[in-house]
Amino acid sequence: MIVQMKPQATKEQFKRISDFLVSKGFGIKDASSDTNIVFGIIGDTKSLNPTDLEAFEGVFQVTRVSTPYKLASRSFKREDTIIKVRENIFIGGDQFVVMAGPCSIESFENTDEIAKAVKASGATILRGGAFKPRTSPYAFQGMGLEGLKIMREVADKYDLAVVSEIMSEDMIEAFEPYVDIYQLGARNMQNFHLLKQLGARTKKPILLKRGLSATIEEWLMSAEYIMASGNENVILCERGIRTFEKYTRNTLDISAVLAIKELSHLPVIIDPSHAAGKYSMIEKLSMASYAVGADGLIVEVHPDPEHAMSDGAQSLKLEKFDHMMKELNKLSDVLDKKIK
């Protein structure tokens, strides 16, 4: 439920109704502005009658939210959420952010070469896997903590932020000094314990990838777990879903961007690399993502994809990434979002 107080309502009137709700076991999420007192009621509100709450002095209107995700809902917060990553990096609003880097961190020299190139081309966030969840237990599993240290050192050298995937809650403290954004992979989208732990134990942004077979509502419910646990800095990432099609690695659901923009205030980016699985498709899918209104991209880049430790087939060479960024900048001349 969402409660809107009258314009002349006092802080004492707000406190009276909020204390009442807390005494009944509900949580309160304040979304007030300078001119309006508005708050959400968190919990199972089936037993609450909106008209009963309107009996409290100062209450203007009580609205029952029909969606099961309240904090992530556009009904709860009408304006778009803009997430601050660093002083000069924001995700959402009128900016289009590009995250780029290798699938897996392989060495300092390799990471340094990639970071230097993607920074020069216009990326502001370095992506890379230090701990890699792989389908096969025999595939390369990443460099671990050493990979995180390499990312942080290289990113600082080129003034880039860092995003990397976390596998479990026992890694949170280890990740905290090295990443600016925690990435939750598709396989962990419904790891509810991990979602709650990240929500409670860090205020850094969480990049939440959509599960391989997840509906949009399930995806938003996963975001709700993080937000209800205390961290509202959630970035949604559409990375392709599993369908009957076998030509591409997954099927990019580009309409999900439009759906999220209607249903939620959270920013949403696209991962064309995992969606297509083919480097030849990434540039056009990226341009389509920009045009449809996504807030950014996360793209795999490698100087020598043929010898990459993982996902070489879906990694852009440095010169191809630079060409893609130039094409995106051409689009920026006619669209409201500017590449940052």
UniProtKB/TrEMBL annotation:
Keywords: Transferase. The keyword Oxidoreductase does not apply. Signal peptide: none annotated. Pfam families: DAHP_snth_FXD, DAHP_synth_1. The keyword Transferase applies. Residues 81-330 form the DAHP synthetase I/KDSA domain. SUPFAM superfamilies: Aldolase. InterPro entries: Aldolase_TIM, Class-I_DAHP_synthase, DAHP1/KDSA, DAHP_snth_FXD, DAHP_syn_2. One of its GO terms (molecular function) is 3-deoxy-7-phosphoheptulonate synthase activity. Residues 1-66 form the DAHP synthase ferredoxin-like domain. Its EC number is 2.5.1.54. This is 3-deoxy-7-phosphoheptulonate synthase. It comes from Paracholeplasma manati. The gene is aroF.
